[in-house]
């Protein structure tokens, strides 16, 4: 069993409109936009990152906003819900805030003893806010949400699968252990993790498969401290039979990718070098940053990418 993985690093999804996506995460959820860059493989599309003050691994939600993208469909073989940790006793505040923002139906529920609010993002994305006592991670204090009500980072994700056995075994190999079962849910977590260290597997054998599109999670990334730890994980995964990509430089972290037995795309990302490698912390997410391979496109991209205000 591996011990290098400490929980989630980031979750990357797809959206239909960059401005709407930005407004929801910065003005409604109160996260900070920590990077405005472009998709490595499709530079005509933004890649937007939202998180805490510095984009700490385990706090970062990222999006590819593809104009005119088709709507995604919930189903198996995908991440169905991303859960954020909020302070204990804050759900009344969030219920009112989400209602005022027109977030649609907000549902109260309890999962494994934790109080939660479930709601949808602008593209039907599945989200939950989970009350977590004594979370040591600091919420972003300079946005519209008070720090004592703010999001501390991820709590975890839910993966909807037709068969959870093989994915559960993979996660155990990655350092997770089973914490409990509740109905169709299997909860796994990492002891001493980074706070974003819960994965729930929802096993629905007869459900339709998900269809990728707006509101879909593209991949979920797990955090390791550095490239040395990443190399150890990559070797172990290859020896276990996973088809893992070479290491890819993503400017703010190094990444490897592989597809899980249940169909979800996993990434292992390094905590280094971080989002302040090319911007001062006071100005994260303000300027358009381009990967070196796309630097020659700046003049065109600055004309064709829709401006994002706020």
UniProtKB/TrEMBL annotation:
Instruction: Quote the PROSITE patterns the UniProt record gives.
Output: VOC (PS51819)
Q: Which CDD domains match?
A: PcpA_C_like
Task: Name the UniProt key words of this record, in alphabetical order.
Answer: Dioxygenase, Oxidoreductase
Question: Which positions, given as ranges, span the membrane?
Answer: none
- Source domain of life is Bacteria
Name the Pfam families on file.
Glyoxalase
Q: Which GO terms describe its molecular function?
A: dioxygenase activity
Domain VOC, residue spans: 7-132, 153-271
* Full protein name: Ring-cleaving dioxygenase
What InterPro entries would the database entry show?
Answer: Extradiol_RC_dioxygenase (IPR052537), Glyas_Bleomycin-R_OHBP_Dase (IPR029068), Glyas_Fos-R_dOase_dom (IPR004360), VOC_core (IPR037523)
């Amino acid at each position: 069993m591996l011990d290098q993985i400490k929980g989630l690093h980031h979750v990357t999804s797809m959206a239909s409109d960059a401005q709407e996506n930005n407004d929801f995460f910065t003005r409604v959820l109160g996260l900070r936009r920590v990077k405005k860059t472009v998709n490595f493989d499709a530079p005509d599309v933004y890649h937007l990152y939202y998180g805490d003050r510095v984009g700490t691994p385990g706090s970062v939600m990222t999006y590819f906003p593809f104009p005119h993208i088709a709507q995604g469909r919930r189903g198996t073989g995908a991440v169905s819900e991303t859960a954020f940790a909020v302070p204990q006793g804050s759900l009344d505040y969030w219920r009112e805030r989400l209602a005022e923002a027109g977030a649609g139906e907000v549902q109260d529920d309890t999962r494994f003893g934790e109080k939660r609010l479930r709601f949808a993002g602008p593209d039907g994305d599945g989200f939950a806010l989970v009350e977590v006592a004594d979370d040591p991670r600091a919420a972003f204090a300079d946005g519209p949400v008070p720090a004592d009500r703010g999001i501390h980072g991820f709590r975890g994700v839910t993966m909807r699968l037709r068969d959870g056995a093989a994915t559960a075994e993979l996660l155990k190999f990655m350092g997770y252990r089973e914490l409990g079962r509740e109905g169709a849910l299997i909860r796994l977590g990492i002891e001493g993790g980074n706070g974003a260290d819960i994965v729930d597997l929802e096993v629905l054998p007869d459900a339709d498969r998900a269809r990728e599109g707006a509101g879909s999670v593209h991949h979920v990334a797990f955090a390791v401290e550095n490239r040395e730890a990443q190399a150890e994980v990559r070797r172990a995964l290859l020896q276990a039979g996973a088809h893992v990509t070479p290491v890819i430089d993503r400017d703010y972290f190094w990444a490897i990718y592989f597809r899980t037995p249940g169909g979800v795309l996993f990434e292992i990302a390094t905590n280094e070098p971080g989002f302040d490698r090319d911007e001062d912390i006071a100005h994260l997410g303000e300027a358009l940053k381009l990967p070196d391979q796309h630097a020659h496109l700046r003049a065109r991209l600055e004309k064709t990418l829709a401006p994002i205000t706020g």
